Hints:
By secondary structure, the chain is of the alpha+beta class. 41% of the residues lie in helices and 30% in strands. It has helices at 11-34, 51-62, 100-105, 129-146; strands at residues 4-6, 63-68, 71-76, 82-87, 91-97, 107-114, 120-127. The strands form 2 sheets. A 4-stranded antiparallel sheet has the order 1-2-3-4. Strands 5-6-7 form a 3-stranded antiparallel sheet.
Amino acid sequence: MNDLTLRPSQRQAHALLVLCLIPVGALLRYVFFVAPDTPRAWLLAGLVFFIFPLRLYVRSWSTRLTVAEGMLRLSEGLISQNATTMALERIQKITVHRSIWQRLWGTGDIEIESAAESGGIRLSDIDEPQAVADRILALSRSSKQAS
């Protein structure tokens, strides 16, 4: 049973998707009503706008932080996958980074450092990062007490 599973937020992707509809709508209006003799291939240019929210959706789908059975595992990648695993009792420090843009969206970055020299785990743009950091610390403390 998983104690905690996290993925990057999709809030920014949703907002970008809505914002992309404005220029695509203007392009559709131009091609069908203003200049009907324009080649329909110009409609493909509207797909370029959807690259930005699509990139954020793919990152959200392909990144997962799981806390289960005393281990913290970060899996990243859609086609080729990288996984970083850390024991909960080895967690020493959790840092929450929030830019002004992230504070407006209610998201933030979490950096988890362990006692190992190899560095830590960083997860970007997650919802309610401080609550998540507190939850991971509580799970770490309970893991240390159980040992």
